[in-house]
Design brief:
alpha+beta, two-stranded antiparallel ribbon, 12 helices, about 20% strand, rod-shaped, binds phenylalanine
């Protein structure tokens, strides 16, 4: 039995020395000292010994147990210390490493122009309205006096959601005129900026999605002179006092009379160049006096009230503001381009 104990002691101590985790140590403790452990098994055989042998063997067995327990505890502490050391090393925070730099963005140039325009109109007593980009054909066309069969209602021009052409992506911000007339009390002065969609191929001057700003004023005695005065004020505030404009007669189903406003080309000063396609002028908006049928359809008596409306392309204004010649630059989001502004 003495031999057995010595062999057990050596084997268990060396196993403890080479254990490398708390779990391995616990397994060893169960293996040797547990209820069904090897040392326990040896102790159980004490009863077979003679009365003379028993005290010495008992003493020896207790010594072995005590040693095992001590080494288990010591090894446990060493393993815990090593684990802590490893944790501290792997989690060190080097406060001298330069931090990750945040790149701060800035406003897109087109929205800077939009903000300027909003400011100008707010200063003249206008409200800013927001409205749906997914629109009923009724609002995008019918209530604006655009009859069935009008070319702009074609599937080749407009993105429709439903086969019956009932729901579409708005092709213009003009349906906001109807929304404003239906929901606001008179007199009305609003602008409504937003995205519009048309089935156009992308090129230097076209995009299937672009931005318009709708403007509208309705009151008693409003005339075309108010429209021209307002628009001239706006472009001069935007581009400077010396900006030259011209109004040309045009046709829109929802205004009568209708016109387009051109601004003299910023590149050539009116002589004609590639930017203005040799015209010397750049068309910036369509406008006119709101058609009596449209007013009446929205419950406003055209014999008492009159109003004007305009719709301008925001991208074009931004291009002019920043002397950019290609519309695509506005949408491509190339930061090398955008960071110049
Ligand atoms: N909605 C017209 C367009 O997209 C512009 C416009 C708006 C014309 C308001 C007259 C009045 O071309």
């Amino acid at each position: 039995m003495k031999e057995l104990l010595r062999e057990l002691k050596e084997r268990s101590l060396s196993a403890i020395e080479s254990a490398d985790s708390a779990q391995a140590l616990e397994e060893l403790r169960v293996k040797y000292l547990g209820k069904k452990g090897e040392l326990t098994a040896v102790l159980k055989q004490m009863g077979k010994l003679s009365a003379e042998e028993r005290p010495a063997m008992g003493q020896l067995a207790n010594d072995v147990r005590a040693q095992l327990e001590r080494r288990l505890a010591e090894r446990g502490e060493a393993i815990a210390a090593a684990a802590l050391e490893h944790k501290l090393k792997s989690e060190t925070l080097d406060v001298t490493i330069p931090g990750a730099e945040y790149r701060l963005g800035h406003r897109h140039p087109m929205y800077t122009v939009l903000d300027e325009i909003k400011e100008i109109f707010i200063g003249m007593g206008f409200d800013i309205l927001d409205g749906p980009e997914v629109e009923l054909g009724e609002y995008n066309f019918t209530k604006l006096n655009i009859d069935e069969g009008h070319p702009s209602r074609e599937w080749t021009d407009t993105f429709y959601f439903t086969p019956d052409s009932r729901v579409c992506l708005r092709t213009q911000t003009s349906p906001m005129q109807v929304h404003a007339m239906e929901t606001r009390t008179l007199p009305i002065r609003i602008i409504a900026p937003g995205r519009v969609y048309r089935k156009d191929e992308v090129d230097a001057t076209h995009s299937p999605m672009f931005h318009q700003i709708e403007g509208m004023a309705i009151d008693k005695g409003v005339t075309m002179a108010d429209l021209k005065g307002t628009l001239n004020t706006v472009v001069r505030r935007l581009y400077g006092e010396n900006t030259v404009t011209r109004f040309r007669p045009h046709h829109f189903p929802f205004t009568e009379p209708s016109c387009e406003m051109d601004v003299q080309c910023h590149k050539c000063g009116g002589v004609g160049c590639p930017t203005c396609k040799g015209e010397g002028w750049i068309e910036v908006l369509g406008a006119g006096m709101i058609h009596p049928k449209v007013l009446a359809g929205c419950g406003i008596d055209p014999d008492v009230y009159s109003g004007w409306a305009f719709g301008m392309g925001l991208e074009r204004l931004a291009l002019r503001s920043y002397k950019i010649s290609d519309l695509r630059l506005i949408f491509e989001n190339d930061t090398r381009f955008l960071e110049q502004f």
